[in-house]
Amino acid sequence: MIAVISVLSGLALWSLGLYTTPFRELLPAWVALLPLAVMGVLELFRRTAPQPALFIGTVALIADQITVGNLATVFMFTDVMYAAVVYGHPAMARRLPVTTGLITVAVTLLSVAWLRTPDSVLIGVITGIVCFGPALTGASVRNHREAAEAARLRAEQTALLAEMDRKSAIVAERARMARELHDMVANHLSAIAIHSTAALSIDDAGTSREALGVIRENSVQGLSEMRRLIGLLREAGAEQEPVAVPSLAGLEALLAQARTTGSASGLDFVLEDGRPPGGEPLPAPVELAAYRIVQESVTNALKHAVPGTVRVRVDRSDGLLTVRVDSPYGERTGPRAPGSGAGLVGMRERAELLGGEFGAGPAAGGVPGGAGATVWRVRAALPAEEKAVEA
Question: Which residues face 377 on adjacent strands?
C-alpha cells in the first residue's frame, strides 16, 4: 500500500510539473520516473530485505538528484532508511544512525565551505531530514520494541519461576503431609494389624480379649490423631485451637504404649536419655523430627523385630542431637504387619530437610553392616541449633 500510494503520488507530481530540482535539464523529465519506479519496488522489500533495499535505494536517490527530481522518491527513501534500522541486523541498526549523522555533518561543512552562503546550511538540514532523521527515529522505535520484548520475556520468566515455586511448594507440602500422616497413623494401624492377626490365629478367649483391648485403644488414638491432622488441613481462615506438637518429652509415653502393644510378641522397649540436664531447648522442628523418627522406628520394630529389647537412645553433644534405635534382628515367626518402605523414606527426608544425617541397616558388635548382625540400627544426627530449618 505504501508503494502504490507513493508511486501514484509521484506520478501526479510529475504530471503537474512539480519537481524538486527543476533547474536541472541535463536529462528529459521522464527519466525522473525511473528512480521513482525503482523506489516503489524497493518498498515491497523494506522488511524482508532491508539491507539490499537501502543500498539500491541510495543509488536510486543519487540518480534522482541528477534528474529534475521527484518528492515521492525522496519520501520513499526515508521510509526505506527507517525500515533498515527497525528491521535490519542489530549491527546495521547500530551503525546507521551514527553513519548518517556523520554524513549530515560532513555535507553541511562541505556546503558551507564551497558555497560560502547562509543558504548552504539548508543543504545539510535537508540531508539530515532525508537520512539522519529516519535513522534516528528507527533506532528509537527499535529500542522501544526491544525493551518491550525484554520486559515481556522477563515477565514470562517471572511467571514461570513463580509457577515452578508454587508447584515445588505444593510437592513439598504434600510430602510433609504424607510424612505426618504415615508417622501418626502407621503406629496405631500396625498394632491393630498385629493383634487382629494374633486374635484370629490363636484360639484363646483371653488372648482374643487382650488383643481386642489393644485394638480398641489404638483405633481410638489413631482416630484422635486423624482428627488432629484434619484440623491442621482446614482452610487457613478458620480459627483453630492450639495443637500440641509432639516432642522428645513424649518418648516415655510412646514407649509405654509400645510395650503394651509388643508384649504379645516378646518385645520390650527401653529409653536411654543421655542428654545433659538443664540444656538449651531444642528447636521445635528438631524435636518433632526426632520424635517422628523414634516413633517410626518403634513401629518398624513392632512389625519386624524378633523377641528381645528395643533400645532407644537420645544424646546431645557438639551441636548435634543423636537419636539411635536398636531393634533385635533376625527371622521372625508369628504374626507381623506388612511394610511398604515409606517409613524409611520419610525418616531420611526429615533428617535431610534439617541438614542432618540418617542411616538404617543391620549391625553387629556396634558395627553397621557387620557379619552376623544381631540388631537393626536406625541412627539420625540432627543439628541442635536454631538455624535448623523446618521440615
Answer: 326, 361
* C-alpha span between 376 and 361 (Å, rounded): 6
Q: Rounded to an integer, what distance in angstroms lies between the CA atom of residue 288 and that of residue 148? A: 50
Residue type, 347: M
Q: Which residues pair with 380 in a beta bridge?
A: 323, 358
Bridge-based pairing of strands 267-273 and 308-317 is parallel
Here the cell at position 223 is: 482416630
Specify the pairing of strand 308-317 against strand 320-328: antiparallel
Distance of CA 106 to the CA centre of its chain: 54
Measured between alpha carbons, how far is 280 from 315 in angstroms, rounded to an integer?
13
Q: How many CB atoms lie within 10 A of CB 165?
A: 10
Taking each helix axis from N to C end, the angle separating 133-201 and 71-87, rounded to the nearest 10 degrees, works out to 30
Q: State how far the Cα of 185 lies from the Cα of 182, in Å rounded to an integer.
A: 6
3-state helix, strand and coil shares in percent for the chain, rounded to the nearest 5: 65, 10, 25
* Segments making up each domain of the chain, as ranges: 2-153, 248-391
Let me know: does 301 contact 310? Beta carbons within 8 Å. yes
Q: CB neighbours of 75 closer than 8 A, spacing ≥ 6?
A: 6, 9
Q: Going residue by residue through the chain (391 aa), what tens digit of pLDDT does each one get?
A: 889 999 999 999 999 988 888 887 778 889 999 999 999 999 999 999 999 999 999 999 999 888 888 999 999 999 999 999 999 888 888 899 999 999 999 988 998 888 888 778 888 888 899 999 999 999 999 999 999 999 999 999 988 888 888 888 888 777 777 776 766 666 667 677 766 776 676 667 776 777 777 777 777 777 777 776 666 666 544 555 555 567 888 889 888 888 887 877 788 999 998 888 877 788 888 888 899 899 889 888 888 888 889 999 999 888 899 999 999 987 766 555 555 567 788 888 888 888 899 999 888 754 444 445 688 999 999 998 755 444 4
Cell of 323: 537419636
Per the CB < 8 A criterion, the answer to whether 194 and 300 are in contact is: no
Nearest to 384 by CA among 345, 349, 351: 351
Please choose, from the candidates 80, 73, 79, the residue with its C-alpha nearest in 3D space to the C-alpha of residue 54.
80
Q: Which CATH code fits 248-391?
A: 3.30.565.10
**What single letter denotes the amino acid at residue 97?**
P
